[in-house]
Write a structure and sequence with these properties.
CATH architecture of the largest domain: 3-Layer(aba) Sandwich
Structural class: alpha/beta
Number of strands: 11
Number of helices: 9
Distance between the termini: 34 Å
Largest sheet: 9 strands, mixed
Order of helices and strands: HHEEEEEHHEHEHEEHEHEH
CATH topology of the largest domain: Aminopeptidase
Bound molecules: zinc ion
Shape: globular
Radius of gyration: 20 Å
Number of domains: 2
Oligomer: single chain
CATH class of the largest domain: Alpha Beta
Helix content: 25-40%
CATH superfamily of the largest domain: Zn peptidases
Length: 386
């Protein structure tokens, strides 16, 4: 197991200062994703807690990017924002209004443009920890715990941890860290959403159906942003034909997750409402330069992780809208202050964003709506069942 030290080379990555303003190209690129992610996962946004100043800054950035690339406003009062009302932990309304950000790429077909394919991610994370910890020590101990969970002996994991921390100490002094940067959760989905919007609006050929780009808030608080949108949609709910949600698409290495690697991708919800959606997802994947190997394990009925009920796609599925959540999986930095941009696999993330773009385009150009052939739940507000 010690041999896996090389797998953890990202541990050695130094955190570099974010760019002031990021110039991006129309193409979906690893360089653009990196530039954007260093911006929104920066300490200065203080972990983007929904209803905080930091989340307000990131939603302003997303709206300004939607406007810059040419999406039309899809929020309230002719703007990009939709205010989301929810009770923060400890009661009361958020200090700063939490908001979804919604932009629309109008379809080219005079009839089909009144139907929408939704692409989404969430802009919030969990804020700031009560107590600071040493960044490297926490990270090493979390990876050592993951190694034990995967069967390494505690002595081997301990030896590895000691060795890893020594090598890091040789590189740099301890760093007190208390900010949950949420680079992967869900900074990765957020910057992928922006790159897809930029690529689709720059493309000469527009899709037949319209595309809604929505950045949900308050996912971490209980899927409040996506639930608010589907309970108070700014376009008719039955005009939403499919929803594609990206959450944690920036990791997925073998050190992070079992079976991890360049082709690793978890899909949740795929055929729960539409067999055809699953077929189209696999067909489009097969056309990608490096097709993904889909892991459907977490979509199994009764699965103990309950991912089906824990991400924003569910807010759409409960209304009978075929939806898929895409992720490159869990990792030892999940919901830790160590979830930072220097540990992200930008090439893999660019491939996920490109795939989601291609899938959205294919669905938007179908000559029929994706067929819902499975029963939908009676009451959208009933409790979710994995
Ligand atoms: Zn998330």
């Amino acid at each position: 197991m010690l041999a896996s030290l090389a797998l953890l080379s990202p541990l050695a990555g130094a955190q570099s200062a974010p760019a002031a303003a990021v110039a991006t190209t129309a193409a979906i690129s690893a360089a653009d994703l990196r530039a954007r992610l260093y911006l929104i996962a920066d300490d200065s946004l203080r972990g983007r807690l929904a209803g905080s100043a930091g989340d307000s800054v990131v939603t302003a950035y997303i709206a300004s990017e939607f406007a810059r690339v040419g999406l039309t406003p899809g929020g309230e009062d002719g703007g990009y924002f939709q205010t989301v009302h929810f009770r923060v932990r400890g009661g009361g309304e958020p200090a700063v209004p939490a908001r979804n950000v919604i932009g629309i790429l109008r379809g080219s077909d005079p009839v089909l443009r009144n139907e929408y394919v939704v692409i989404s991610a969430h802009n919030d994370h969990v804020g700031v920890a009560r107590h600071a910890v040493d960044h490297d020590s926490l990270r090493v101990s979390n990876f050592a715990a993951a190694m034990r969970k995967r069967g390494a002996s505690s002595s081997a994991a301990k030896a590895w941890a000691g060795h890893a921390l020594d090598s890091l100490r040789a590189l740099r002094p301890p760093r007190a860290d208390s900010i949950y940067n949420g680079a992967d959760d869900d900074g990765s989905g957020t910057v992928s959403l922006l790159e897809i919007a930029e690529a689709m609006t720059a493309a000469p050929q527009k899709p037949k159906r319209s595309i809604i780009f929505i950045s949900h808030t308050a996912e971490e608080e209980g899927l409040y942003g996506s639930a608010w949108f589907t309970d108070h949609p700014t376009v008719p709910i039955d005009s939403l034909v499919t929803e594609l949600d990206m959450d944690m698409v920036g990791r997925g290495s073998p050190a992070d997750v079992e079976h991890g690697g360049p082709a690793y991708l978890e899909l949740i919800g795929t055929r729960r409402l539409s067999t055809e959606l699953g077929d189209v997802a696999e067909r489009v994947d097969a056309t990608e330069p490096l097709p993904f190997k889909f892991n459907y394990a977490f979509d199994a009925p009764g699965d103990k992780e309950e991912y089906y009920c824990r991400a924003d796609h569910y807010s759409y599925a409960r209304y009978g809208i075929p939806s898929i959540n895409f992720s490159r999986g869990d990792h030892p930095d999940y919901h830790q202050v160590t979830d930072e941009p220097q540990y992200i696999d930008y090439d893999a993330m660019a491939r996920v964003a490109t795939y989601v773009r291609d899938l959205a385009l294919t669905i938007a150009n179908l000559d029929h709506r994706v067929v819902v052939d499975k029963p939908k739940q009676q009451d959208p507000h009933a409790e979710c069942v994995q």
